[in-house]
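Objective 1b of the project was to move from sequence-level analysis to a structural picture of ligand recognition. The entry below was assembled by the postdoctoral researcher (A.K.) and checked by the PI before modelling. It contains the amino acid sequence of the target and the SMILES of the bound compound, magnesium ion.
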Amino acid sequence: MHLPDYRDNENSDAIVLAITSGKGGVGKTNIAANLSVCMAAANQRVILMDADLGLGNLDVLMNIQSRYNLSHVVSGERSFEEITQIGPNGVEVLCGGSGIETLANLGKFQRQRLLEEMQALEDRSDLILIDTGAGIHSTVIAFCLAADHTLVVTTPEPTAITDAYAMIKVLAAKNYTGRISLLVNMASSLMEGKKVYRQIADVASRFLNMGVYEAGVLCRDENLVQAVRRRELVVQAFPKANISKALAAISNRLTKRANIRTGDDGFFRKVANWFF
Ligand SMILES: Nc1ncnc2c1ncn2[C@@H]1O[C@H](COP(=O)(O)OP(=O)(O)OP(=O)(O)O)[C@@H](O)[C@H]1O
Ligand SMILES: [Mg+2]
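Corresponding predicted holo structure:
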């Protein structure tokens, strides 16, 4: 199938990819950060947003000092421009903060101002990657439901598999219209990872009538651990490592797939609809 080149459509809103999981600690933040840098290397204008309320650690991973974060935008103290940090390959990083929860308590005027600023973000980027944090909480679900594409991350651990399925089940129950892809991380082999994918995709198809795309498999890799210790991203610190090549391939696949928009409404408008 031929997919149109993204740049054919210069004026369209950004495509939004939410990166989520049922269980915590499966590698979402590492995957989001590395994919964002791979996508930016492929000439995409990328915004990486940390929407993990409370536990966000994108700044640590990307070695970014962020005095201000999304909570300061929500409270009106700072603008998006002022909190934007430029990461590797020009990725624009928006660090999180617990203030996003207070979105629901904002007055009409503040909310409107915020939505307008968010719309400007969509206008100036091709791809917005959102690290949603783990679990089937309402905020995580709101971000996924509003995204064009949701990447569910799991590991081969039975608890992670069950929780990934639970997440897919919630999205199906809410009639999610976007695409769901599954990424199996920390596999001990490609074969093991593919088996996990098939297991989840089969059950989702049979019981939820939901198609789940295969994003790919990442094996457990000491290079990633080393890179984290050095506060570098593995795709930059060890570009020739197997995991870096696999991340580049997944980035490529997702960028092509993400080309397909699933709704007409702006992303943040949709998030707002789910919140309010
Ligand atoms: N492929 C991998 N190989 C080896 N270690 C990995 C791999 N992927 C992730 N890790 C390690 O797993 C740990 C958790 O990763 P990460 O913080 O990205 O997970 P998370 O899903 O974002 O967690 P949380 O739910 O707390 O936000 C980190 O210490 C990271 O170094
Ligand atoms: Mg995380």
